[in-house]
Structure formats: C-alpha cells, structure tokens
Amino acid sequence: MTDTDTLYLASTSPRRRQLLAKAGLAFELFAVSVDEEALTEAYQGPLNRLGEYLARQKALATHAALQAAGKPGRALAADTTVLLSETHLAKPADLEEGRKMLRLLRGREHIVATGAALAGPEPGRIASATAITRVLMRDYTDDEIEAYVVTGDSLDKAGGYTILSTTFRPVERIYGCYPSVAGLPLCLVDMLLGYTREPMGEACPWSDHCRPPLPVPADIQPEETDEFEREA
After folding, report:
1. 4 within 8 A of 73, measured Cβ to Cβ
2. CA atoms of 15 and 179, how far apart (whole Å)
3. Do the beta carbons of residue 178 and residue 120 sit within 8 Å?
4. Has domain 3-224 been given CATH number 3.90.950.10?
5. Integer distance in angstroms from the first to the last C-alpha of the chain?
6. What residue segments make up the domains of the chain, in order of their start?
7. Running DSSP on this structure, what letter comes out for residue 222?
8. What is d(CA 191, CA 223) in angstroms, rounded to the nearest whole number?
9. Residues carrying an active site annotation
10. Those residues with Cβ within 8 angstroms of residue 56's Cβ, 6 or more apart along the chain or in another chain
11. pTM for the structure as a whole
12. Model confidence over 170-226: pLDDT tens digits?
C-alpha cells in the first residue's frame, strides 16, 4: 500500500472506529472540526441527503488539513440524519430532549440516512453516497426510556439512541443497512474505496442484520466537488 492509499477516518466516533476495524479496513485517525450547526442551517437540499452533505464537508476539510500536514492519503467521513416524517431529529441538547425524542419515536417507523464521503488522494477529488434505512422502534416503556437516558448515552446520538445498545435495545426491525444505522454504511464505504464486496441479492457481506432493500452502487455521487452542491 502506498502513502496515497492510506485511509484516514475523519471522525471521533468510537462506533465508526469499531465498525471499520471489525470490517478489517486499515485506517488512521485524523479529524478536524467543522461548524455543523452553520452548515446545517445553510443547507437547502433534501433532508435525507443532509448527512451526506455534512460528510462531504468534513471529508474535504480533513483532506485539506492532511495535505497541509504533509500526509498523503484519503479522508473518510460520515454523518447520520434521523427523520420522523418531515422532522429532523438531531443530537439531543440535553437529557429532557433525549426523553422527548424517544417518546416521539416509540412504536413508530422513521428514516435513518447516513452519508459517507471519501476525499482524495488528489486535491478536490471526492465521492459520496447515502444509505437510507427504515427503522421501526419497539413499544418500550417510560421507565426504559428513563433508565437509558440517565446514562447519558443518548446525548451524542442523532435521534437520541443507538441501535447498538445491549440494554435498551430500542429497535424492533429495520429495512436496509444495519451498519448505517449504527453509524457507517460499510457496503458504501467499500464501494467508495473501489473494492468489490458489494451487496448481492438479499445478502450483505457486512452484517447478518441487514434487510432488503440494500444500498446499491448507483447511490454513489460523482467524484467532483461541485456536483452535490449544485443538486443541494
């Protein structure tokens, strides 16, 4: 592997680190901060592509910082959007907002759209994709909500929950990509990296929990810096 093939994960999320490591993809950590609040407020595109838009901004900013630091390679970023009808459920600002989100989601189906973006190795080169998954929450109780929220685990999660919780277990069923709901659509990352382990038929090589419809290569946006912004 050459230096230009080095993969840098532009994220501080332990879940994304774990998913990449479990998939056997070698990477290093290198993340820079972007003003997500300002970018979200300025975004004019469809909400189910907001995560992809933010991922592209993170990947481009990180790749620029890598170049400035003399580190050749590619920057991978991701961002998750949770949508209930037309309402965007971001990360809860506090415990009470986390409680409200979980009550809203209880027993209902919503959309989790996780965008992934890969910038580099050349300056300005970027490709991205979004995995859209339907998620049905189980009819958990108020006591279960309280027990989960007070742990603080909901505060850094879009929608106020994680599908990976081994105690709360809020999700009853999904239709789509399980790793995407966990924070990183490995199948799309694999495609962006140019490998060949694409979902085939009703099977996914990345998780036994995935259910059709699965993401497909056609979801990937062109390797240009301005194509996505024109659409947005």
Report:
1. yes
2. 10
3. no
4. yes
5. 35
6. 3-224
7. P
8. 13
9. 79
10. 77, 115, 117, 119, 126, 128, 228
11. 0.90
12. 999 999 999 999 999 999 999 899 876 655 556 788 899 999 888 865 556 655 544
Spatial contact of 83 and 89, defined as CB atoms under 8 Å apart: yes
Owner of token pair 């532009």: 10
Q: What is the mean pLDDT of the chain?
A: 90
Q: d(Cα 30, Cα 218) in Å, to the nearest integer?
A: 28
Question: Contact 177/197 with Cβ under 8 angstroms?
Answer: no
Where helices occur in the chain by DSSP H, the ranges are 14-22, 36-42, 50-68, 95-105, 142-149, 178-182, 186-192, 227-231
Q: Does residue 138 contact residue 172 with C-beta atoms inside 8 Å?
A: yes
- Peptide linkage before 212 cis (omega within 30 of 0): no
Structure tokens at 25: 């993809």
Residue 111, strand partner residues = 83, 134
Kindly state the tokens that stand for 179. Answer: 């790793």
Residue 54 above 50 pLDDT? yes
Amino acid residing at 159: G
Handedness of CA 126, 84, 12, 215 (dihedral sign): negative
Per-residue pLDDT of 91-131, as tens digits, reads 999 999 999 999 999 999 999 999 999 999 998 899 999 99
Amino acid residing at 203:
A
Which helix (H) or strand (E) is 50 found in, with range? helix 50-68
